Amino acid sequence: DTAVSQTPKYLVTQMGNDKSIKCEQNLGHDTMYWYKQDSKKFLKIMFSYNNKELIINETVPNRFSPKSPDKAHLNLHINSLELGDSAVYFCASSHRGQPQHFGDGTRLSIL
Amino acid sequence: GNSVTQMEGPVTLSEEAFLTINCTYTATGYPSLFWYVQYPGEGLQLLLKATKADDKGSNKGFEATYRKETTSFHLEKGSVQVSDSAVYFCALSEGSNFGNEKLTFGTGTRLTIIP
Predict the structure, then answer these.
(1) Which of B80, B40, B39, B44 shows the shortest CA–CA distance to B60?
(2) How far apart are CA B53 and CA B29, in angstroms?
(3) If DSSP codes are grouped into helix, strand and coil, which group holds residue B83?
(4) What percent of chain B has pLDDT over 90?
(5) Which of A39, A43, A53, A101 best probes binding to B when mutated, by most B CB atoms within 10 angstroms?
(6) Which of B14, B9, B52 is nearest to B33 (CA)?
(7) DSSP string of chain A?
(8) What is the Cα–Cα distance from B108 to A42, expressed in whole angstroms?
(9) Shortest CA gap A48–chain B (Å)
């Protein structure tokens, strides 16, 4: 009965590769988010979608492309991975201004 | 723009000690304020929230009061347990109900409780 689930939990890959992280929520929420947590634990929003429409797009390289096929899913595709992309990526969801619920994170390590 | 400033960690306390983690914010409007907790290897969990001035959020023995005059939302607990060891994040949210209510986080404070 996981509320916000992300896959994979760990992702180890080489520089230059393309990878995707998937997120699904079963809470019936209408808004989903991606956050990046760096090695110092600092969290920063990357994107948000409301009813499959992109709402927030922070200053993120265009190698990062979110896709929301429906309200319950928000995937993150990253092209040409760089060392600086190593981080923990968190998906979150919320509904009509209520507090955001977070997934357990995907730890991305670039070799 | 919006910002959140938390006290630097790490913080180490003995069991049953009193805890305060300071948090101040800068916002252009009237934000909602939150404390999130991250246990080792897990995602963030909402600990408590307050949506307007003078509101007090509370949960699991933790409390924080929304102080507009001092732009603060300090987290307190009267008697900490070993199980409270985690990283605590103060955050604020502004925006409407339609997807632009992004969270702005502080840098997090790592708390370790010693038996």
Answers:
(1) B80
(2) 12
(3) helix
(4) 78
(5) A43
(6) B52
(7) --SEEEE-SEEEE-TT--EEEEEEE-S--SEEEEEEE-TT--EEEEEEEETTEEEEE-S--TTEEEEEEETTEEEEEE-S--GGG-EEEEEEEESTTPPPEE---EEEEE-
(8) 7
(9) 6
Per-residue confidence (pLDDT) for residue A55, from 0 to 100:
86
The one-letter amino acid at B76: E
Pairing of strands A31-37, A43-50: antiparallel
Helix (H) or strand (E) holding B92: strand B86-93
Q: Among residues 34-93 of chain A, which lie with CB inside 8 Å of chain B?
A: 35, 40-45, 48-51, 53, 55-56, 90, 92
- Per-residue confidence band for B99, with pLDDT thresholds at 50, 70 and 90: low
Which residue among A4, A90, A99 places its CB closest to the CB of B46? A99
Q: Is the dihedral of CA A4, A8, A10, A15 positive or negative?
A: negative
A48-100 per-position pLDDT tens digit:
998 888 888 887 899 999 999 999 999 999 999 999 999 999 999 998 878 89
Q: Which of B11, B8, B13, B38 is nearest to B113 (CA)?
A: B13
CA B14 to chain A, closest CA, distance in angstroms equals 24
**What's the token pair of residue A53?**
């429409």
**Chain B interface includes A3 (CB < 8 A):** no
What mean pLDDT is predicted for residues B83-89?
Answer: 96
